[in-house]
């Protein structure tokens, strides 16, 4: 009778050890996921957005901006009027 009691206790101890091991693994996974989430939150919502523009489209945009720049200079050369 004492042997069966001890065997039962050993069985329960092994089960509890396995459960504790699973809980530790899950806690580690949660900690890693939370750290990853915190890092993403710090970076901002657009951090994972990729720019798929080609180099040619980038050059066209630079050229378009160069065309617009003289117009801006003409407007900025006028004295600004203040409202009262």
Q: Rounded to an integer, what's the Rg over CA atoms?
A: 33 Å
What's the SSE pattern?
A: HH
- Which quaternary structure do these chains form? single chain
**Tell me about the biggest sheet?**
none
Overall mean pLDDT stands at 79
| Count of runs of 4 or more consecutive helical residues | 2
How would you classify the helix and strand content by structural class?
Answer: mainly alpha
Assign an overall shape.
rod-shaped
Extract low-pLDDT stretches: none
The percentage helix is over 70%
Task: Give descriptors for this structure.
2 helices, single chain, mainly alpha, 84 residues
Tell me what you see in this structure:
- The chain is mainly α and 84 residues long.
- It contains two helices and no strands.
- The N and C termini lie far apart (101 Å).
Element layout with pairings:
Blueprint: H1 2-43, H2 55-77
Task: Kindly summarize this structure in a few lines.
The protein is mainly alpha-helical. The protein contains two helices and no strands.
């Amino acid at each position: 009778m004492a042997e069966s009691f001890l065997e039962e206790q050993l069985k329960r101890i092994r089960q509890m050890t396995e459960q504790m091991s699973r809980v530790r693994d899950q806690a580690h996974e949660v900690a890693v996921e939370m750290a990853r989430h915190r890092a993403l939150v710090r970076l901002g919502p657009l951090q994972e957005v990729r720019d798929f523009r080609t180099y040619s489209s980038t050059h066209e945009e630079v050229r378009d901006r160069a065309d617009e720049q003289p117009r801006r200079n003409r407007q900025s050369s006028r004295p600004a009027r203040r409202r009262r």
